Amino acid sequence: MGMITQEMIKQFSSLMEEIDEPLKNSFKSIHEGYPTENLVRFLKAREGNVSKAHKMMVDSLNWRVQNEIDNILAKPIIPTDLYRAVRDSYLIGMSGYSKEGLPIIAIGVGLSTYDKASVQYYVQSHIQMNEYRDRVILPCATKKYGRYISTCVKILDMTGLKLSALNQIKLLTVLSTIDDLNYPEKTDTYYIVNAPYIFSACWKVVKPLLQERTRKKVQVLAGCGRDELLNIMDYSSLPHFCKREGSGSGSGSFRLSRNGTTDNCFSLDHEFHQQLYNYIKHEAELMESIALIKQRSFHVDIPEPDLEDENIAERLESEFQRLGGQNGLSNSFGDLTISRDLAEGK
Predict the structure, then answer these.
(1) Where is the CRAL-TRIO domain (predicted)?
(2) What is the Cα–Cα distance from 120 to 116, expressed in whole angstroms?
(3) pLDDT bracket for residue 7 (50, 70, 90)
(4) Are strands 152-157 and 103-108 parallel, antiparallel or unpaired?
(5) 100 three-class SS
(6) Per-residue pLDDT tens for 271-329?
(7) φ and ψ at 254, to 5 degrees?
(8) How far apart are CA 329 and CA 320, in angstroms?
(9) Closest CA relative to residue 87, chosen from 44, 50, 117
(10) Which residues have C-beta within 8 Å of that of residue 67, sequence separation ≥ 6?
(11) Edge-to-edge strand list for the sheet holding 218-220
């Protein structure tokens, strides 16, 4: 893709002046005072095609308005036990900042089970993480480091990855689609660590199907990746699963730091999650909505995955059926199917 030019930005900006007022208001909530930089994000996501970038933006803003995304940080997942169950089965957290000031988002891909709540709760939690990153974390980083910071670094821990994880590929495709269509160009680099053989087989299938723009962002590191990651961040910002070989990333694997907080950035007791939880609680109180919220998920319209995403899921399923037959593991693969129940909220 070529450079995004001023002429592209000018054309895009002119088109944005014609959108409806509710969409303009929602756009203000996402650009946080940096409208041009956010137009550039969508232009990059559509290879500099102004018309396609404009359609993508309008579709995203309509999605935000129709699903009240601008208010999602005032809609907590309750009761607390349910929220804790979501956190224990969808391992994600923030461990610190890179030397350039980019937030470090850690994701426990291998040990996330997504089996303690309905799909909609995981979707709600995922969107809340995105919104908190964009509305709170990134603006704070911008202020702290004295320059506009709009992206993060993601470290994906593959510890414990098993074939059974493929049963959740449909949910992961939904979360990925939400990010691709509504939060484009928010990740600077994806670092893969603690990758077992099963990941290598997955990556061999998936890599050729990804857009070049995405492939360039992915780096698979040896072992826990500690030495390579220390080139871009201090030791204190390393996720717990990168600090020593075999450290594990499960929610039960943690130690207390000197200030008494847990070192496991996935834990609800970690400083990041405590701040996020309290922020959402405070926002809900400001809107005086706590009394109106029942124990149910905040339903969000799930966008249809791109045909490309569907192809990746199908290719993964087919490839592992083939690998199972070749290696005499057909019994292990016999019950392996890609879940298709999302439309029913299962």
Answers:
(1) 79-239
(2) 12
(3) very high
(4) parallel
(5) coil
(6) 999 999 999 999 998 886 455 555 455 677 776 666 555 566 666 666 656 655 554 44
(7) -160, 165
(8) 10
(9) 117
(10) 300, 301
(11) 92-97, 103-108, 152-157, 187-193, 218-220
